[in-house]
Design goal:
The complex is a heterodimer of chains A (454) and B (431). Chain A has nine helices and 27 strands. Chain A is an alpha+beta fold and 454 residues long. In chain A, helix 3 runs parallel beside helix 4. Chain B is built from ten helices and 21 strands. Chain B has a six-stranded antiparallel sheet with strand order 3-2-1-4-5-6. Chain B has a six-stranded mixed sheet with strand order 10-9-8-13-20-19, with no helix packed on it. In chain B, a hairpin with a 2-residue loop joins strand 1 and strand 2. In chain B, helix 4 packs parallel to helix 5. The longest helix of chain B has 18 residues. Classes of the chains: A alpha+beta (454), B alpha+beta (431). At the A-B interface, strand 2, strand 3, helix 2, helix 3 and strand 7 of A face strand 2, strand 3, helix 2, helix 4 and strand 15 of B.
Chain lengths: 454, 431
């Protein structure tokens, strides 16, 4: 591949050129209720070319590799239609790397029948509860080989295997329908999804228990979030705002997001760290060929860094971080998170609960979103806290807050960091889902708004 | 090429179907008020569905020259597949629909750039401190469906989208306004989209305050799809088949306010989801969903219809890499008689919802929603007072659709949903 790509690259001229090419093989199994909605293997191959003229970019994606030469010419031609202020890229030494994957239990060595039987068994468990109406189960193993070559002499070949499993149980009692979800897996082999019957059983129990929960009352609360939600909080309530492409051309926002600004208490550390093996956001090189690295977004409560592409890094004069990622060959790389988490503090969960007079303990994750000032995140379930004890279960919670105030309202940071991955991921700029992990310890946060009837 | 793959597949299966998509798109992208990138894509892919020993098998590929692994994978998967409850449709002569625009094919990149620039310049003339980003895109696709029962259908489809966002970061007061238009046909949207952004921008210059409670509310056309999510799930044949639709057993019964009419209409001229046939080759149609508030139909693809002992409503939606599944096409809420201004005049104290964050995170199936008001306005004594923010609005979309006070007199498409603004009796505000 290398010599073919480099010979094609040599024939065209641009300030900067890169070719990304991917070969993907996916085995997927999808149950909805008793019905097996889909099972089987699919194949995808395709590429994306990025060309830069002095003042603009062009991106061309394709499936037919035999026309690569034409596409390269089109990319350079279209980039030259843009005549703007000069775009600079942070400099980067050329590299040559071939990274092959090593996993225990390569899904390719497991028969489709064995995968089918595993999913069938989990699905039966999901359907086994007394008040369970239906289920949804998605299994996928994805083998990706990515090729990257650019006009600066860098060539990187990266192989990757993802194995993921999502399980949902849906309970019904009359008009009351409730669901619970469990996501597992990440970068790695078949072992990630084996022997998860217990998790399926636990999902069933959560869905059934939600039938007895009452809708939460709207208002302001002190909340304790579990590690799963703590991660979503790190991702939505801060992570996105630290992606430099939102502010690298916005002077007003840069003044607001000045390094050193105090966002939270001194014990608060938020980190983006791609090189954690097994996590969804694991990678060694990003989709611009930049080596990945650990970045502190918040250090001891202060804004201490942000995530960059080569362009945002050059424009802002800050260190390159290797966070330009694309969900696949048909999208250009943009600034994204990887594995983002809040570092552990010193409080135990028990101390935290006891310390909160009145509030809600919220658990599990249904989704989150931000507009860079406000964020929302939705837990799956909650427990009212009364006089330092966990009480009644509540449902239909969606929480919101202001990014600039809420981090400062963190009262306590737990000592129990956990990272979460699984199917699904993050969405930005039309690119979704991108595999990421999020995590954190239990957190106590005051003055969080919960939507609902008063 | 397609015929050969089909023949290969047919050799080991009772029925087989190929679904191929080829598309070409060009997009001009603006960032920080200026042209930033020009993107093109050339995509193709093929999906093969077989019925083998009565069971469904499927595989897909982007490499049309490698047919053997595709046929083998589809055939292999059939041994585990679900029992087929349908036969693939035979050849059918369908009337053509308007889903292709010649003038879009000849539209130049330069023209798209020019229109994007004009829109941004209009905005900056009035509000030079706004940061605009935008995308102008044209797509041309060819979809082919071929099966062993004699169906051989190919059609072309175009779409043109013009979307623009304006952003302002002020300490304690971030603002983002998004507007856009999309259609099969080319049209110069630059000034109308820019004007809508400016109108919203002017309204946000003043602040409104609201205390927690229940208030009358107007959802703009842009916001209405939030409330239709639950209904779209509820009428889905697959959700019905799993017995988790709150609309189970409600055919012929009132489910929303009596002056609401809703259709699913893949024949609507020039709309984004308009096509001559669905993803399985079933001729497109207009299906009444709700008439005078009464539930008329659920939507089905072939397999789900088979399971439910009924017929496909031509709602088998798919890409090349997935099996068909029921989904709405163009979802049309019929407009009413009340202009937006009249609704505003009617409100003593209430709000207008235009953009939210956090939708789809709650129990959508049951109709529950609870979202942060990203862009909304306070109404006092019949006048728009200013922007309200930092609040959550919540409710149940079924309850709200049963408490509609008025439907707006002007509809517009938001993606594939066409709807007027809707005025509701009340919504919960927390904050």
């Amino acid at each position: 591949m290398k010599s073919f790509f480099s010979s094609c690259l040599k024939r065209v001229k641009a300030d900067y050129l890169e070719i990304r090419y991917e070969e993907v093989k996916v085995v997927g199994i999808h149950y909805v209720g008793k019905e097996l909605e889909a099972i089987g293997e699919s194949y995808g191959k395709g590429g994306g070319i990025r060309a830069k003229s002095r003042g603009g970019w062009s991106f061309v994606s394709f499936n037919d590799l035999s026309k690569l030469k034409d596409y390269l010419e089109l990319a350079t031609k279209e980039a030259h239609l843009i005549k703007g202020e000069e775009i600079k890229l942070a400099s980067l030494p050329a590299r040559n790397e071939v990274i092959s994957v090593e996993v225990e239990l390569d899904p390719a060595d497991i028969s489709l029948e064995e995968k089918y039987l595993l999913c069938n068994r989990y699905n039966k468990i999901l359907l086994s509860g007394k008040e369970i109406q239906t289920s949804a189960l998605r299994y996928a193993d994805i083998h990706t080989t990515k090729y990257f070559i650019n006009s600066e002499g860098t060539y990187i070949e990266q192989e990757r295997i993802d194995t993921v499993l999502g399980m949902r149980a849906i309970a019904r009692r009359g008009d009351n329908i409730q669901s619970a979800h469990m996501g597992i897996g990440g970068v790695g082999g078949y072992g990630l999804v084996k022997e998860k019957a217990e998790q399926a059983e636990e999902t069933v129990k959560r869905a059934q228990d939600l039938l007895d929960a009452e809708p939460a009352k709207g208002g302001k609360y002190t909340i304790i979030v579990d590690p799963e939600l703590s991660g979503v909080f790190a991702h939505e309530a801060f992570g996105h705002l630290s992606e430099a492409d939102f502010l690298y051309e916005d002077k007003r926002l840069q003044k607001i997001m000045v390094l050193g600004r105090v966002f939270g208490p001194p014990g608060l550390n938020i980190i983006d760290e791609p090189r954690i093996k097994g996590e969804g956001g694991y990678y060694l090189y990003d989709d611009e060929g930049v080596p990945s690295q650990k970045t502190y977004l918040i250090k001891e409560g202060r804004l201490s860094g942000r995530l960059h592409s080569r362009e945002t890094s050059a424009k802002m004069g800050e260190e390159i971080t290797g966070n330009a990622r694309a969900i696949s060959y048909d999208y250009p790389p943009i600034v994204r998170m990887s594995n983002t988490y809040i570092a552990a503090g010193d409080k135990s969960f028990e101390e935290m609960i006891e310390g909160v007079g009145e509030g809600i303990y919220v658990k599990g994750f249904r989704g989150g979103q931000t507009n860079l000032e406000m964020f929302t995140f939705a837990p799956e379930e909650g427990y009212l806290i009364k006089k330092g004890r966990l009480g009644k279960k509540v449902r239909d919670l969606n929480l919101t807050g202001n990014i600039f105030n809420t981090l400062a309202n963190i009262e306590a940071i737990g000592n129990d960091l956990v990272l979460f991955t699984g199917p699904g991921g993050c969405g930005k700029g039309g690119q979704s889902p991108l595999p990421v992990s999020t995590g954190g310890p239990h957190l106590e946060i005051r003055d969080v708004v919960v939507g609902g009837k008063q | 090429m397609m015929k050969k793959i089909l023949e290969m597949a047919a050799a080991s299966a009772e029925e087989a179907e190929l679904y191929r998509v080829r598309s070409k798109s060009s997009e001009v992208i603006f960032e920080a008020n200026r042209l930033k990138s020009i993107d093109s894509s050339f995509e193709e892919g093929i999906g093969l569905r077989v019925i083998k020993q009565g069971k469904i098998g499927f595989s897909s590929s982007t490499d049309l020259s490698q047919s053997r692994p595709l046929v083998k994978a589809a055939s292999d998967s059939a041994q585990f597949g679900e029992k087929a409850r349908f036969h693939l449709p035979p050849a059918d002569s369908t009337s053509s629909v308007k889903c292709y625009d010649d003038s879009l094919i000849s539209l130049s990149l330069e023209q798209m750039v020019k229109e994007g620039r004009e829109a941004i310049n209009l905005i900056l003339k009035e509000a030079p401190f706004l940061h605009c980003e935008g995308e102008v895109a044209k797509i041309e696709a060819e979809i082919s469906i071929l099966n062993t029962n004699g169906l051989s259908r190919s059609y072309k489809k175009t779409s043109y989208t013009f979307s623009l966002g304006a952003f302002l970061a002020e300490e304690g007061n971030f603002l983002g306004i998004g507007e856009g238009e999309a259609s099969v046909k080319y049209h110069d949207w630059s000034s109308s989209v820019a004007q809508r952004i400016l109108e919203a921008f002017r309204l946000t210059r003043k602040k409104g305050r609201i205390s927690p409670g229940r208030y009358p509310v107007i959802f703009t056309s842009k916001a209405v799809p939030l409330l239709l999510q639950s209904l779209k799930q509820g009428i889905n044949g697959k959700v019905l088949q799993k017995k988790i639709s709150p609309l189970l057993g409600k055919i012929g019964k009132p489910v929303v306010s009596s002056f609401i009419d809703i259709f699913d209409d893949a024949l609507f001229p020039l709309a984004l989801a308009t096509s001559p046939v669905d993803g399985e080759g079933i001729p497109s149609r207009r299906t009444p969903i709700i008439e005078e508030g009464v539930l008329k139909n659920f939507i089905y693809d072939l397999q789900t219809a088979g399971l439910m002992g009924t017929e496909s409503t031509s709602n088998g939606a798919r890409g090349y890499s997935t099996l068909p599944s029921p989904a709405t096409s163009n979802f049309i809420v019929k407009e009413g008689k009340v202009p937006l201004q009249e609704m505003v005049k009617d409100i003593k104290e209430g709000i207008i919802v235009d953009q939210v964050i956090g939708s789809g995170q709650g129990n959508v199936l049951m109709g529950e929603f609870s979202v942060n008001l990203d862009l909304g306005y306070k109404v006092e004594n019949g006048k728009i007072k200013g922007r309200v923010k930092d609040v959550m609005v919540s409710g149940n979309s079924y309850t709200m659709l049963n408490n509609v006070l008025a439907l707006g007199s002007e509809s517009r498409f938001i993606g594939t949903t066409r709807t007027p603004p809707i005025y509701f009796k009340e919504i919960n505000v927390a904050g």
